[in-house]
Amino acid sequence: MSAPTGPLPVPAVVAGLAAHRPVSAVWVNELGGVTFGIGAPRPVEYVKTYPEPLAHLLAAEVDRLRWAIGHAPVPRVLAWGPGWLHTAALPGRSAVDPVFAERPDVAAAAIGTGLRMLHDALPVADCPFGPPPWVGDAPPPADRLVVCHGDACAPNTLIADDATPAGHVDLGELGVADRWADLAIATMSLDWNFGGEGFEAVLLDAYGVAPDPDRIAHYRARWNDEAPAPG
């Protein structure tokens, strides 16, 4: 997932939802999905669009957002249909926004704190969703079962201007699994988005856990074999 390098065509459904408000493409992914922001100077709503063969992924995300919003700061679903999902914006910026990309230690700490808050807030016993498919059928014994984000890459944590966690987006893979399914991917994504060294330790320290090399290696291997569709 990355920011677009230039203007992109605005689908008719997005233009209709915008109702003459400013529209801009804000994220693209490797599978042809584009997320558009509505409003300026910062979006107040978003519309995620996917090619028709992947429309089912948005239906799965709708179910998860509607369940999670009762427990944690996640986007509110405004409307959805085949191939599109319209949500209200949350306060904050993506952890990879230039404001935080220039302060990767701050971003890493907020990601770790945010994941701990998410894991503590979402009730495992009430969660109707099984583990993210990429986790596989034979994970190692769980360190702690939580409701995982499922795609805990850095861009999916939102951070407030005071550097505190503001929420999470792209929850189409949310489900019950070992917390290391999130932590392994969150720490791995720091290298992709920020480079450098030491940020993994910052994230884990903010989360409040010591490194678990075996579980980290397992879940990273599973991710690389069966990576979920990017948000």
From TrEMBL:
Annotated active site: D151 (proton acceptor)
Annotated positions binding Mg(2+): N156, D170
MF terms (GO), sorted A to Z: ATP binding; kinase activity; metal ion binding; phosphotransferase activity, alcohol group as acceptor
Any Pfam family hit: APH
Keywords: Antibiotic resistance, ATP-binding, Kinase, Magnesium, Metal-binding, Nucleotide-binding, Transferase
One BP term from GO: response to antibiotic
Domain Aminoglycoside phosphotransferase: 137-217
The UniProt record lists the keyword Nucleotide-binding: yes
Keyword check for Mitochondrion: no
CDD domains: APH
Family: Belongs to the aminoglycoside phosphotransferase family.
Name of the protein in question: Aminoglycoside phosphotransferase
